[in-house]
Write a structure and sequence with these properties.
Number of strands: 4
Largest sheet: 2 strands, antiparallel
Structural class: mainly alpha
Radius of gyration: 31 Å
CATH superfamily: Large-conductance mechanosensitive channel, MscL, domain 1
Strand order of the largest sheet: 1-4
Low-confidence stretches: none
Shape: elongated
CATH architecture: Orthogonal Bundle
Number of helices: 4
CATH topology: Non-ribosomal Peptide Synthetase Peptidyl Carrier Protein, Chain A
Oligomer: single chain
Mean pLDDT: 83
Number of domains: 1
């Protein structure tokens, strides 16, 4: 139990947990963006097509005499797949943009010159000795 507690309280695990929560929220935002904004626009551009309804029926539903479904319809919902692909591309592009900005920030940080260190007392003393010897 002690080992697990040490593992769970490490900074990396907490950072990962925060990233998962933020990633889940980001996924919901992208899902809404695709379903509620992008796909309706694509539907208008393609003549009013609602992609989430697009499917190929492999076998029709079987109903009994009362109209109750005995065997459900078997279909390929390719419209939902198209939406999922668009969602993936948006998430991948967003992550690419964030990572590219992060890499550029890291490069700037690495390229920035380190501030000059304050000379130690020993260096100051040696400088004074050097100056005295020059005179």
């Amino acid at each position: 139990m002690k080992d697990f507690k040490e593992f769970a309280m490490k900074g990396n695990v907490v950072d990962l947990a925060i990233a998962v929560v933020i990633g889940g929220a980001f996924g919901k935002i992208v899902t809404s963006l695709v379903n509620d904004i992008i796909m309706p626009i694509i539907g208008v551009l393609t003549g009013g097509i609602n992609f989430s309804d697009k499917k190929v029926v492999l076998s029709s539903a079987v109903l009994d005499a009362t109209g109750k479904v005995v065997k459900p319809e078997n279909d390929l919902t390719y419209g939902v797949f198209i939406q999922a692909v668009i969602m993936f591309l948006l998430i991948a592009f967003s992550i690419f943009i964030v990572m590219r900005a992060f890499v550029k920030l890291q490069k700037k940080k690495e390229e920035a010159p380190a501030p000059p260190a304050e000379p130690s007392n020993e260096e100051k003393l040696l400088t004074e000795i050097r100056d005295l010897l020059k005179r």
